[in-house]
Amino acid sequence: MRRSNCSKNSLGLPSPLRARMVAAFLAALVVAQSACSRSERPRTKDDIFQDRLTVDTLYITADGQQITAPGNADRALVVDQAAGAIAWPAWRCDNPACPGRSATGEPFVFPWPDPFASVSSAGAIVIRQPVSDADFKTMDDYAEQKCPQCLAQRNIARESDETRQQYKNWCQPHVLPSAAKRLAELDAESAAIAARQRERFEQRQDK
Ligand SMILES: [Zn+2]
Fold this sequence. Notes:
Layout (H helix, E strand, L loop, with lengths): L14 H25 L5 H9 L2 E6 L4 E5 L6 E4 L4 E5 L1 E3 L15 E2 L6 E3 L5 E3 L5 H11 L4 H4 L9 H10 E3 L3 H30 L1
Antiparallel strand pairs: 1-2, 1-4, 3-4, 5-6, 5-9, 7-8
């Protein structure tokens, strides 16, 4: 096939059309690059703080149903809106003699449900304020975390303050292995950011 000369380029297109295509291509490139630089801005400690809040979390309902989901600002999950069922982040009991330990010695995990929480008709978690003496008694009881398995064999009224504190200290947030791994990565990233900031500060001091 014989090509005509000058008026067409190597794509066989008239020059003005090619110029428009090149301009469109360049414009697209600029848009892509700016989107790219937005996503590649250096991560800050605030980014890491946000990521820490959303690591995989084991949630447990009051009746023992377990759900793994990302952490959220509510620190709770609505499981069944109609029934008003809420799942709470899991805690574990580190008491070596906890009767809830599994046959293989795994710690007992349990929820710590807020007695003042409920589910609104819109599906949101609502926390009401305590108002009555009974409410304040409930509040005090809620504030002192207790493993339900250990509680069944304790006699709190006769315990020393030290023993009571020990039972409380045995209750710790349960961290899933995947979350522990992610939190370690975020700790390392946070330390690297701090080191870079220190380096920049020292460079400024040297000038
Ligand atoms: Zn226990």
